[in-house]
Specification:
Blueprint: E1 4-10, H1 19-28, E2 31-37, H2 39-44, H3 49-56, E3 78-84, H4 86-94, H5 100-111, E4 115-119, H6 123-127, H7 129-140, E5 144-145, H8 156-173
Parallel strand pairs: 1-2, 1-3, 3-4, 4-5
Length: 176
């Protein structure tokens, strides 16, 4: 039996520095995890990228491949954006695909893949009037966005478990 493939989209917010913990938690739930970082998150995790590739057994991607290069990752069954930044949420809602991470999650809406986002942002960013509109827009497109009230400074383990629980729920109600 092949395991389910989870694309973990990691944005540049403080919880990204502990991405290996989320990978291990997802693997413990039976996921084959592929890590995709935004370019800034990849820079933050540069020293850890070889260990993360070893942990996931897949290359960590942060850039688009060239058109004639083969795909090196298996196709996803679901995607988790954690941590998700205000920048990523905003661009995602607008359909901007200027990074591999954004391209994948933008396409995932059209593919109707289970999609969960766990934002990590400041209260000031969350209070920006555009942020709430874009969260509502993405939710209307089928994306589950987990916002804590009040916004935790570091969602880490409890937020990650909540996000993985939500992905599990979405997988159980989808055909296939």
């Amino acid at each position: 039996m092949t395991s389910r493939v989870l694309y973990l989209i990691c944005c540049a917010a403080p919880p990204a520095l502990r991405a290996e913990e989320l990978v291990v938690r997802a693997q413990a739930r039976g996921w084959d995890v592929c890590l995709i970082c935004t370019p800034t998150a990849a820079r933050w995790l540069q020293a850890k990228l070889p260990a993360l590739a070893n942990l996931t057994r897949h290359p960590v991607r942060s850039q688009y491949k060239l058109p004639d290069e083969p795909d090196v990752l298996p196709p996803p069954d679901a995607m988790l954006v954690a941590p998700a930044t205000a920048n990523t949420i905003t661009k995602w809602a607008l359909g901007i695909s200027d990074t591999l991470a954004l391209g994948l999650i933008t396409e995932a809406i059209g593919l109707r893949l289970p999609l969960v986002a766990l934002p990590s942002l400041s209260d000031a960013q969350a209070a920006h009037p555009a942020f709430g509109r874009y969260v509502a827009f993405l939710r209307s497109a089928g994306v589950t966005i987990l916002l804590a009230e009040p916004q935790p400074a570091s969602p880490y383990a409890s937020g990650w478990d909540l996000a993985l629980d939500e992905i599990g729920k979405e997988m159980s109600v989808r055909p296939g």
